[in-house]
Records
---
Amino acid sequence: MKDGKRSIIVDTSRCTGCGRCVSACSSRLITLDTIGSRKVAWVKFPERCSLCGRCITECPIGAMAEYPPKAAPQ
Ligand code: SF4
Ligand code: SF4
């Protein structure tokens, strides 16, 4: 949440809990939590996120995204 408006969101309905995003974040801002019988990722310290995008790139199923999304180039 570098500019106070944008953040990384996780689609918890799709997240498989693989943990790749946890490893990808060198600032260790992402953790896995248990929801029911599933493990899902979430950004624990969004205020420290630099929006570098490594977690988004590393997620094999595209369950992470920057929100709100960047406007498409004209
Ligand atoms: S965008 Fe970068 S700093 Fe932010 S949670 Fe993902 S890997 Fe970590
Ligand atoms: S890399 Fe994607 S599927 Fe794996 S834990 Fe992170 S958000 Fe979930």
---
Amino acid sequence: MAKSIEDELLLMSANALPRLLIVDDEPPVREFLSEALAPSCANIGAVESLHAALQAFQAGEYDVLLADICMPGGTGLDLLALAQQLNWDCTVILMTGHAEMDHVVAGVRLHAADFLLKPFSLDTLQDSVRQSFHKLQSIRSGRTERDRLFSGLRERTEQLKLAHHLLNNSYHSALETLVATLEAREPQTCAHSFRVRTYAMHLATAMNYPAGDLPLLGYAALLHDIGKVAVCDAVLLKPGPLTAEEFEQLKSHPVVGERIIHRMGFLAGACKIVRHHHERWDGRGYPDRISGSEIPLGSRIFAIADTLDAMTSNRCYRGALSVDDARVEIQRCSGTQFDPEIVAVLASVPNAMLCELRKQADNDAHIARIPDLNPDDSPLCAAAPLPLFPSTVGA
Ligand SMILES: [Fe+2]
């Protein structure tokens, strides 16, 4: 039967011999140990001092250091401490002719692999080297496995992040496409929705809106009028003033929009923003006539963004107002239609920034636009200029 890679590695590990560095200041001892351990080691180096051991370890590769405690220029304990400090990938066996409790305790604390009291038998020495080496191999194997697991975990995490990113992009793209399709029925919807989203997110960021909720605010702004799909053409596209009954039907779109968005589970948090996007600060809006801070903050921000864009964009029945004129009108409605705090935030945004935001949003809308879905020469807009109907502006 073929061996797995793990089996092969285990076999290689079992058959591997240690590379040994002997550190002892007495030449006869170094010679004896070298000869005695030669058959059970891959290679052996032998040096006389701590300094020489440091040089030898840095120059070569060793698995086991067999060090005498008493040496000139530094003890075996110093060598052990150095190995710990420099994180050497080896194990250290200490030898001594004088068993002193302080040395033993220090050796244990510094994680010496073994402590050999001279004179020791050859079997004892060989056993000590073999077991210390096997323990080192076990540690190395565990480290390799841990690194492999961490590497796999990192790779998996990156894959999940990528999948999450792609999924978000898909949602994002799908929702933008959905808005772009609304253009077929109501001209300018796509660009208006993109601009309102951009303005709303800028205002929200400026007033420290919770960062985690910003995407939902963006989606709510983008889809705010999705409920208009339930409003009949005769009302939605009517070029003249709406009757009271028609206006009631138009006013249903925030509630319908909430229902539609609620079906998209990941947008559930945007439902209330959509439902209340036509409420007024003074409670005279719709559908629930709530007022002040009862209105979700996202809806209050949206209301200003929506009005700003509606007033500064061309309509079939009038040309675009200037940003300054729109500011005056929004300021006039501060405390009645709009949240005064958000009106103040808008006042702090320079015209140049609003202009840049508009350009950016128009560009995004252009990219999302579905070609030939809504010819620019819409019969509605080609008709003679219509009078201004305030009741439907921004509806
Ligand atoms: Fe609306």
---
Amino acid sequence: MIRLAGIDIGNDSVKLVLNGQNEPIIIPNVISPGYERHILQEEESPLQALDVMVYSPKLKKKNQRYFVGLLASEDQDNAELEDTDNKATSDQALIVALTALAYAAATSGPSQAQPQPGGGFVSADEAEYIIGTGLPVRTFAQFHRTFEERLVGEHEVTFLSTPKLRGRTIRVNIRRAIISVEGAAALYHMATHENLQVRNEELYYGCIGVCEIGALTTDFPVVKRMSIDNQFSTGEQLGLAAYLDGIIRDVEDQYGYKFPSRAKLIQRIRREDYTIQLLGEGQADIKPIVDQYFSRAAQKIVDLIRKRWKKYPDIQCFYVLGGGAAALRPYLIEAAENMRLRFVDNSELQNVYGYLKLARNRLNQLEGGATVV
Ligand SMILES: Nc1ncnc2c1ncn2[C@@H]1O[C@H](COP(=O)(O)OP(=O)(O)OP(=O)(O)O)[C@@H](O)[C@H]1O
Ligand SMILES: [Mg+2]
């Protein structure tokens, strides 16, 4: 059985959708060195405690233990991606992606592994994949081959202290990786139905501007009749992360309270929970700090959009997407004044659905409809 999946290897989080399943799997793109942990109470779900050994010929350290995602985001020694990292070549990006693919395989479909009495499993599970994924506008031309070569091949993930998956080994065999452009894939998803027929003629046949605000990059593809405009599409090495880091720094300076990771801060912002607990019973409201950074971020993005639109007045409308659009939406609307910007719900998931559809589209073209699930 070959699984078809869309996977968005985001600098903030890796999102994965299996063909035919609607619910995405989301894993924060954070890792830390793994070790034997003292478990007082086992976590409820595997995603809360991804503790893995990852083997891949493409990794510098070939057989290493990592905490991945939520478990790592609690750890003071964790690593989140930096703006010097390139997801096409980054080991961390590959580690989290392989963990996501292994988790998806382990929790969907039957297992060939026989549980042994006394725990553990006799054999490994094979998980064959065809994946759709993507790179930022500015990295795509130079790195899409490298990225494809890193992904395609045989890798192996063993779950260690992860609840429900303890001792399971998944051999992740990526048969083919179809690489698209971030932001443009999102637009393809918005313009088409699940069966890939045109859903929105304006988007499908028009000239559309996209501003996709990620954690470390913001992509500005211009898409005309579903083709990427080579001349006008660009990207910026700038995303929400720099502003989150600023907020974390200021909160620490002012209140002595340190968020262990951007992921922890954004969880608070998503819940609109701006009150932090101070040592010795006090509380503080960090909303003014968030407002200050997010207004500044929004102003910068709006200026960039205005500049792009002026350069290319054929653009009919501008969509603001990515997790950054969700975080900055009210600030962007305010900064945009009378320039109309378009938003969609779940903007951070539009790419991954787009990658899956583009992969399906390519397979249909190549094989006249291969039998993939
Ligand atoms: N629904 C949401 N509300 C508020 N903030 C969000 C939401 N979803 C994501 N974010 C935040 O927005 C930022 C961008 O998220 P997104 O998932 O688009 O980034 P990414 O795709 O992982 O990164 P990149 O595109 O740079 O590789 C992150 O800092 C993330 O924490
Ligand atoms: Mg992204």
---
Amino acid sequence: MVAELSSQFKPIHAAPVAQITTSSAGSQMKDSRLMSDSSSNFEDAFDQLGLSLEEVEAFQLANRAKKVANSEVCACGHAMNKHTKYESGHWDCHTAKMWCPCQEPIPILVADDTKYFMTKTHGYGARHALATGLLRCRQKGVKTRMIVEPRCFKCDRQTDTLFPAAINRENRLVDVPADRNGIFCIECIYAFQGIQVESP
Ligand SMILES: [Zn+2]
Ligand SMILES: [Zn+2]
Ligand SMILES: [Zn+2]
């Protein structure tokens, strides 16, 4: 029901509310409203204020969507809302204490509080900012949830053992914050390191 209302946002409903301030038209409007409600003794405060149900619901929905966006965390291990795109077309991701060259922000999970995602990447897996950020959340009792399928970003294989990693422009795995970040299977981690794994 709520979703339905969002798609049919009608600013027209706002007009009568705004007009109440003008003397004659306003009082007329109010009277007719009271008349229509006279059948019942109880009048809801929502109607008494002349609020538009559609308008308030649309605002509530938009505000909720904003909160969801603000709770998203990028594959680089930092909150999506800490990413900035510059006129040059380049991105970065920063807080007062942290800077990261993330060029491809990808929302990967949501957290009840993203403020613990501001650690630095020192390698892949346990040493990546996504892993240390998630650890901090667990230590602080902050809930987190994946919003992407548990698949390797490179080979698309579905596995429950995925390693967050930073990849540089030369497509190599690095031990510092880098342009690209993702979650990868161990075979692809080896491939990024230039290690050939012989298949049995
Ligand atoms: Zn980042
Ligand atoms: Zn990022
Ligand atoms: Zn893979």
